[in-house]
Amino acid sequence: NNNVNPGATTWAARIRDRQGTAAFVGKNENNNIPKVSQSIGALEIPMAASAVGATLNNEDARQYNFGFNSNLAQDLGECMRTACDNLIEQTVFFGDAAVGFKGFLNYDGITVTNAANGASGSSTWTTKTAEEMIKDVNTGITKVWTDSKGVFLPNTVYIPLEQYSLLNNTPFALNAQVAFSSALTFLKTNNMYSNRRGGELEIIPIRYLKGAGVGGADRMVIQDRSKKNQGMPFPMPYTVQAPVPVPLGAEFYSEQKHGSYFISQKLSTLYVDGI
């Protein structure tokens, strides 16, 4: 969310709860017209400014241009941009207790379940068939849907790189007459989300999910991904300041400001460990 004042140190993610239902006139208790009400809560999301800098020496710039035929100031600027992007990636996935940031990989209050054992007696996908891997994903999607009484229906599944490769490389067929496809291809359109909403399930590999679960288990994250359910305030994007002259060179600085990743509707997300 970029619509945040950059001077703020915290941001409130509003959560609205509405109550009440209409009734037939003269047919409800005491023949009263029912009233509606609502309550509004908020998650207080901390935000923090970050910065990075670089020093450019005139002689270094000349030698760099001679040796690499490239502009050192420009390349250092790209390095600073990458450094700021890396900070965002790190804090979104892992959080940072020093500034009160929470991470996507282990967010407080999210239900954690374990994948079922397959015919091999193990829950890990390296020992499972295509059918068993597909069932693990569909079981997780169904759990979010039923636990939330149908309010949330996951449209996105995040898995480690190895498990994504297993889905992609493991052939699957319903019967001998059906052409073989991968378990990944089949799963994208054969799940509760696709059945109810008609869209394709998004399956995204994330390297940080390897070992992210309890006891170092590989973790799958199943989520109804929507700006209503998750977010991150980002009031000030990466901004480069004017160079500051120093003897025989210059210093460059850039800054940005963003807040913690947050999950405002915790039933929208499920962690499945042991895949």
What share of residues is helical?
25-40%
How many β-strand runs? 14
The count of helical stretches stands at 6
Tell me the radius of gyration. 25 Å
Regions with little confidence, pLDDT below 50 for 5+ residues: none
Sheet with most strands: 5 strands, antiparallel
Structural class: alpha+beta
Tell me the span between the first and last alpha carbons: 33 Å
Mean pLDDT: 92
Task: Tell me the series of helices and strands, N- to C-terminal.
Answer: EEHHEHEHEEHHEEEEEEEE
| Overall shape | flat
- Determine the strand fraction and express it as a percent band: 25-35%
Short synopsis of the structure:
With 275 residues, this protein is an alpha+beta fold. It has helices spanning 58-68, 72-94, 130-147, 161-169, 183-189, 192-197; strands spanning 10-19, 37-57, 111-114, 156-159, 171-172, 181-182, 202-205, 219-223, 230-231, 236-240, 244-246, 249-259, 262-263, 269-273.
Task: Explain what this protein looks like in three dimensions.
The protein is an alpha+beta fold and 275 residues long. The protein is 27% helix and 29% strand. The chain is built from six helices and 14 strands. Strands 1, 2, 10, 11 and 12 form a five-stranded antiparallel beta sheet that branches. The longest helix is centred in the first third of the chain and has 23 residues, at 72-94. The chain is flat, with a radius of gyration of 25 Å. It starts with 9 loop residues before the first strand and ends with a strand. 24% of the residues are buried.
